[in-house]
Amino acid sequence: MNAVITGASKGIGKAIAEKLAAEGFNVMICARGAASLEAAKEAIQQKNPAVTVTAVSVDMGDKAQVLAFAQQVKSTFDTVDILVNNAGIFIPGALHEEADGLLEKLMAVNVYSAYHLTRALLPAMMARRSGHIFNMCSTASHHAYPNGGSYSITKYALLGFSKNLRRELTGNNIRVTSISPGPTLTASWDGFEAAPDRMMPPEDIAGVVWSAWSMAPQTVVEDITLRPMLGDI
């Protein structure tokens, strides 16, 4: 079995890659930072010597690089059983105050990367009539909040993409799941002072990915929302 996880050098993406590798999946991971990506690859491979771990440095905000990555996936794997569109950038701020061009930058990474990579890998899934696509949305995909800005706009868009994809693939035996975590203990929250137990561990997000994948073939978990016990921060 093979899985592709974007934005997997740390945080939620890395936790998902670790979980899938531990369950026997060969994994291909990507991220922009080559050093942290290589460190993630080595850590996952060391824990799971029986599987193949491949890492590719990709700027997911660059369409050409995303499409080139898709070709590398096709060259490496005969099949893609799980695709996790996790790459994203979290930059809070009010719409009237944020820098010009931020919306375009966040759309490219948070939405267009999932769109282009999914479109490139989907034909083979459809031909086999199997596969599971996970789109990493956010609680910001469901409710507006102060200082959500362009980030929140992109997460709303990603959820719309995911829901539309689910409807399109209903008859193709391909599962699509939207996952919407609230505050999770990842690098996106570096500098924000909160007790570690006030935030969710990324391993919990990885756990729900595995649970959704493990359902009977005729069962699809369409939407998953996770929040800290005490609510969003």
UniProtKB/TrEMBL annotation:
Annotated family: Belongs to the short-chain dehydrogenases/reductases (SDR) family.
InterPro entries noted in UniProt: NAD(P)-bd_dom_sf, Sc_DH/Rdtase_CS, SDR_fam
Keyword Oxidoreductase in record: yes
Record's GO cellular component terms: membrane
Name of protein: SDR family oxidoreductase
Keyword field: Oxidoreductase
Gene Ontology MF term list: oxidoreductase activity
Organism in which the protein naturally occurs: Chitinophaga solisilvae
